[in-house]
Amino acid sequence: MSFNSLGLSAELLDAIEDQGYSEPTPIQRKAIPVILQHRDVMASAQTGTGKTAAFTLPLLQRLSADPGSRRGRPVRALVLTPTRELAAQVGASVETYGRHLPLKSAVIFGGVKINPQIDKLRRGVDILVATPGRLLDHAGQRTLDLSRVEILVLDEADRMLDMGFIHDIRKVLALLPDNGTRQNLLFSATFSSEIKALAGRLLDHPELIEVARRNTTAEGIQQRVHPVDKARKRELLSQLIGTRNWRQVLVFTRTKHGANRLAQQLERDGLSAAAIHGNKSQGARTRALAGFKNGDVRVLVATDIAARGLDIDQLPHVVNYELPNVPEDYVHRIGRTGRAGNAGEAISLVCVDEHKLLRDIERLLKRPIPQQVLAGYEPDPSIQAEPIQQGRGRGGRSQPRGQNPGRAQGKPAAKRTAGGRGKPGSTPARRKQTGSEAKPRHNRRAGGGPQEGSRQRHGRPGRGRQRADLLGGSRD
Ligand code: AMP
User: Fold this and answer.
1) Are residues 203 and 265 in the same domain?
2) Which residue has the higher pLDDT, 459 or 180?
């Protein structure tokens, strides 16, 4: 099937051709015709399936086909995303696919100056991509009028709820016109009861669209576990990158501190590397990502949250330097490679401490991941498993949402050998907001600056915890 049969305009088909896409992905095949009919949509699709184009292309077509009232150039389409990175990526897609159309778009998120955004909004914007917190800042300052929005997209809605944005979403909805003609599109990797409740309030007789989940269809991704001692992981990683001549590798660590340290060590090994995580400024993250995309940075070391939603075309290699505490994060991580039908390789360096985490991941995938011990890196059988360090007190704060590490990892080993690790099984009392996420409104500090406030202390821990238990995932 080609894009020609989906009913898209010549300008959009040209933009698709510019991108070199030969045929629509399953979510695009299903969603584009339905959205063009002005129907509401509830779609389950993860990052990497081509979902951005699935809503962006028909959205652009709708707006360009009906110029509407240009008076004041009101925002006519609003896309809400959970993270700054995802907002930037969706914004870039809107620009890319809309390049032959006379529509204007803008991206707004927190952690950067607000005045340039105000200027841009004042000049008029047809399509606005935003994280909820900064959007509400603009609405509060009356620098943004959402009263003429015709199309609303909630992208990665499950992540938005997971990150505590439900109040912000409700506030945003209250700013939209209530004339019954708005088209609403909800994209989510999962359909939990909370997502269904939100959809029930928001969507009018939606078309339900489901495409296969990545944890059942990772065929394009070659997965492999290399058992190795923890102390030798860095050496093995450098060797793999060097001897296999990997030019672009995304490496996951559990903690921000671990990401920094590993990036520095790789640099010392002569590999250009950068770390990306929630403690880095927006500028530093943007620079690291740009360097990684253009080939200046060969190894990008990331924590889970920072990497969420990253869209790097045809990323060939993902390495789990440390397995995630929450099995679902493994699926998100390896989803960075093998995107939209491309081949990819996902390597996990697994030490004895992580065997329980590996079993949990394999249970989720419903199949074992092939293992290969590499010559010279055979694990030392005399090394005993130790509890997974959570990074607290050493600069890193990675921990599973609403879970204590003991639960995520199973019972900590009864006896610890010496080795100066962090506190075993220390239970984080609160969740840390990362810089890559916009902040939920009800806990944001006055002024909406880039500080990272803690949410659990002031927020609604009960509900947050419930979400966390439902969806899993880890924050950095
Ligand atoms: P997304 O799921 O929206 O994050 O898209 C994942 C990646 O797939 C992006 O790099 C897109 O550029 C790419 N992509 C989207 N649609 C197609 C298509 N029809 N054919 C090939 N690649 C695509």
Assistant:
1) no
2) 180
Angle value at C-alpha 476, between 396 and 429, nearest 5 degrees: 80
Could you read off the pLDDT of 311-359 as tens digits, one per residue?
665 678 999 999 998 888 888 788 777 665 566 889 999 999 999 999 9
Whether residue 25 has its Cβ less than 6 Å from ligand 1:
yes
Atom of ligand 1 nearest to the CA of 47: 2
Least confident interval from 169-173, 224-228, 281-285, 401-405: 401-405
Please state the atom number of ligand 1 nearest to the C-alpha of residue 23.
Answer: 19
Residue 334 lies in a domain: yes
C-beta 52 within 6 A of ligand 1: yes
Q: 49 C-alpha vs ligand 1 centroid, how far in Å?
A: 6
Indicate whether residue 48 lines ligand 1 (CB < 6 A). yes
Residue found under tokens 């590499």: 374
- For residue 353, being part of any structural domain is answered with yes
- Binding site membership of 311 for ligand 1 (Cβ less than 6 Å): yes
Task: Look up the CATH number of the domain holding residue 308.
Answer: 3.40.50.300
* 42 in the same domain as 173: yes
Q: What is the pLDDT of residues 3-41, one digit of tens each?
A: 999 999 999 999 999 988 889 999 999 999 999 999 999
CA of 19 to the centre of ligand 1 (A): 9
Q: Is residue 82 part of a domain?
A: yes
CA of 336 from ligand 1 middle (Å) equals 12
Please check whether residues 202 and 271 belong to one and the same domain: no
Mutate to test the pocket of ligand 1, among 18, 56, 95, 311 (most ligand atoms within 8 A of CB): 311
Secondary structure letter of residue 149 according to DSSP? -
Which tokens hold the place of 167?
A: 């109040």
Of 172-176, 400-404, 469-473, the poorest mean pLDDT is in 469-473
Calculate the CA dihedral of residues 117, 123, 126, 131 and round it to 10 degrees.
Answer: 10
Distance CA 58, CA 27 (A): 13
Cβ(131)–Cβ(82) below 8 Å = yes
Q: What tens digit of pLDDT does each residue of 44-77 get? A: 877 778 899 999 999 999 999 987 666 678 999 9
Residue 424: both structure tokens together: 């075993």
Same domain, 57 and 191: yes
Per the structure, the count of domains in the chain is: 2
Q: Are residues 146 and 283 in the same domain?
A: no
Say yes or no: 81 and 189 in one domain: yes
Is 340 near ligand 1, meaning CB less than 6 Å away? yes
* pLDDT band at 459; cut points 50, 70, 90: very low
In the structure encoding, which two tokens stand for residue 194, read together?
């909370």
In the listed set 308, 339, 365, which residue is the last one of a domain according to the structure?
365
Domain membership of residue 287 as a residue range: 231-365
pLDDT tens for 94-128 read 999 999 999 999 999 998 999 999 999 999 999 99
Residue 63 and residue 195 in one domain = yes
Whether residue 92 contacts residue 15, with contact meaning beta carbons closer than 8 Å, is answered with no
Nearest CA to ligand 1 atom 20: 21
